[in-house]
Amino acid sequence: MDVSNRQRMILAAVVALNEKSGDPVGSKLLTEVLSQLSVSSATLRSEMSTLTNMGYLMQPHTSAGRVPTPQGFRYYLDHLMQYYPLTDREKMDMHNTAMSLDPDPEKAAKQAVRYLSDKFSLACVIATPKSDDARVVHFKAIKAGIYNVAVIGITSTGSVQSSMCRMNWKISDEEISDLEKYLNGSLAFVYAQDIPETLPREILEMKAKGFDYSPAYNAAVTMIRSATEVKVFSDGLEHLLSFEDLDAYARELIQLVSSTSEVRRLVENIRADSRVLVGDEMDIGGIDRLGLVAAPYKAAGGRKGGVGILGPIRMNYAFIIPRLCYFCEEIGKATV
Prior knowledge:
It is built from 13 helices and ten strands. By secondary structure, it is an alpha+beta fold.
């Protein structure tokens, strides 16, 4: 069934009013907002009833007004929405923030997720790029006590990883230097898939002599394998839990935001400039009043990660989409 121009205006107005308050929108309020239509409250009620029958609006209670359905939001997103343009001040703020992000891509992701969560007062999730060819290009071993050794690895993606290891003897400065040389000679620039599952002969021989280097060796191997993995960061769950229309989903929201696999599924490998999922499109069991705005960003080497803004289905898409996309573009410029 075709949607008339008047029905489009009514649906757009209901979306806008519902976004601000979260309350159902009645015909009396619509009459005031859409005074340019010069139609009666009864006519508006009739049109809202038609939109309800078409699946674009729903009536939560018998005497209440209407709220958009996920189908109604989808129609609004595809046919009615007009973006709120960024101000020069906003562009400058986003540019400066992107340029100030840490060179380490994982630290940068943590900073970005906090910035975006605060900016939109919604939850933000970030999945870093997948790097099948990532390697640790240099290891550093530092004596951190009589028995403790800090192993530090610098990856080809620019991140820095570290691990504290406890040895089974009082390790000397000379032995620390030998350990560092061994790690760089045997594991630097090695792909994760090329590392054997068993300890190498040299480590086993030293272990038989009472000098167990395996904690440091295993820590270095873990760093190499971790370098290829997608890292997921999230922030702003408290913002989601502040919306009354999401109160019933508190447990599910906590599980969603803390689930690495779910976040990866939602925002990893985004091909287009952005995408929006509403309600059942997110394929999250039990939550049909949630929305997601996701966009890709480029990290070092041109690899793509994904950023997502999570909020109630009634969130202000026209404001969020252009700002999220702009910030992601600025991140890409900062990593060139």
